[in-house]
Amino acid sequence: MPKRPSIRYRLSFSKPRCLALAAVLLTSLVAQAQSAPRVPLISGGIGMFSSTYEGSTFMQPVIAPVLAAPLGPHLLIESRADLRGLLQQNNNIGPFHGSFTASLEYLQADYIANRHLTITAGRFLTPFGTYNERLTPIWIRNLQDAPLIFAIGTRTSGSSNGVMVRSNLYATRKISIDNTAFFSAKVSDGQFQSARAFGDRLTIYLPSKRLEMGGSFERFLQATPSEKPHRNSAGLHLWWSPWRSPLQVRAEFAHGPHAAGYWIETAYPLTQLGGANSLLGRLEPVFRMQQTFRITPQPGDGLPSADTQQADFGFDYHLPHEVRLNTSYSRTFSSTNGNIWDISLTYRFLFPAWKGAR
Amino acid sequence: MNIDSLHCIGAISLLLTASISLTAQTPSPASGKKPATIHNNPGERAFKANCSRCHYAPESLSPRITGTVVRHMRVRANLSAEDERLILHYLNP
Questions:
Q1: Do A129 and A235 touch, CB atoms closer than 8 A?
Q2: Which of A44, A153, A158, A223 is the most buried (most CB within 10 A)?
Q3: How far is CA A72 from the centre of its chain?
């Protein structure tokens, strides 16, 4: 019968191995910690918006801070709030009166499960189309006002409370395919409002052409006093920014239960006239054409009550130090026609959450 | 202005932007920040293919938060793990 090694022997036998294993583990942990992001960041935008529509003007000071905090190699906590004041006159005369609103747009934990999959839980921006997730930050959007079809697929608040599965399904140098699926529960409370809904968005991006196409779907599961549950919204988007030109083309079409519409936006920073930091190169003309079609009357669905066409002409000026001046004129054709004049100043900030070494 | 003239202005603006973009495809050597050109360095290529899709790059980026930014953007843009790695290496060699 083979002699069992004594405990002492076993210990002394395994000690070097243990040490080696510990060293390997430690090195890999240190390597992982070094390659994993660690320092949280604080970012966001501060802005002052003003809008004049048919002689009445309102102003909105806004601050929208963002926090992104990695916790180890797999977890990211991210959040954005929106704090804004509204200053307007009573019947267009007299002093300006103010009100204040604060909303938590997202507060989510992203778990990077593996190379392909990220699972998100918490409150997140409803992933329908592109505008909500990408262009709502005040320092990113080219035009101050959201498109007329913004409410399609993003009701009730633009945010969802629930779970989201984000995946990069396939990626090569030529093509990248990704998918985002979500489920959200109903929260009627003002601050954390969201709808009971689920949805999916599939996107194909061709890096060699800088061309992106995608389709979104959302099923609204909750009933309202005037609407039955189970209503579908669907959308398509196309983004293109050619390699050899600063042109940007972005377009979305969306069809909701009561209305449909599209927007197409082109922007052309004049960086080729003397460089990005020249007087002219800082200028970016923007044009957006939008149209909505009313299918059935539905007050409160966030879309114009009658068929509407709108053309937005903008000039954005990129000042140094992350400051931008946006101006635009919009002409609306609907049951009543109107002019909208917008002007805004935004500043983007970005810094590590604390000082010191990495 | 009526709806027809609006359509007309819309079409002209779209055409104008398209034609400026086509005629201006070759940047003059004097221009500072040139439009992105396809590059052989995979990190630079991944950066240029992805990081100006949605917004302008920040004027400066502290190396201490580059990893956090790229992780945040990987989630927001559903970037591949490989693109995250390449871009991180490109920004923080």
A1: yes
A2: A153
A3: 24
- For residue B1, give how far its alpha carbon lies from the nearest alpha carbon of chain A (Å): 9
* Closest CB from A271, A351, A358 relative to B31: A271
Per residue in B10-45, pLDDT tens?
444 444 444 444 334 333 322 233 455 656 799 999
Range with the lowest mean pLDDT among A225-229, A284-288, B79-83? Answer: A225-229
CATH of the domain at A85: 2.40.160.10
Structural domain boundaries, residue B56: 39-93
Check B20 against A331: CB less than 8 A apart. Answer: no
Beta-carbon separation of B67 and A37 below 8 A: yes
- The pTM assigned to this predicted structure is 0.86
Model ipTM?
A: 0.87
Is A1 domain-assigned? no
- Picking from A40, A245, A320, the nearest residue to B24 by CB comes out as A245
pLDDT, tens digit, 9 for 90 and up, residues A111-140: 999 999 999 999 999 999 999 999 999 999
Q: pLDDT > 90: what percent of chain A?
A: 76
Is B84 a domain residue?
Answer: yes
Q: Is residue B91 part of a domain?
A: yes
Range of the domain at A136: 16-352
C-alpha A154/C-alpha A137 separation (Å) is 16
CA distance A272 to chain B (A): 6
Is B50 a member of any domain? yes
- The structural domain count of chain B equals 1
In order, the DSSP letters of A153-211 are TTTTTSEEEEEEEEEEEEE-SS-EEEEEEEEEE-B-SSTT-B-SEEEEEEEEEETTTTE
Which residues on chain A are in Cβ contact (under 8 Å) with B15?
none
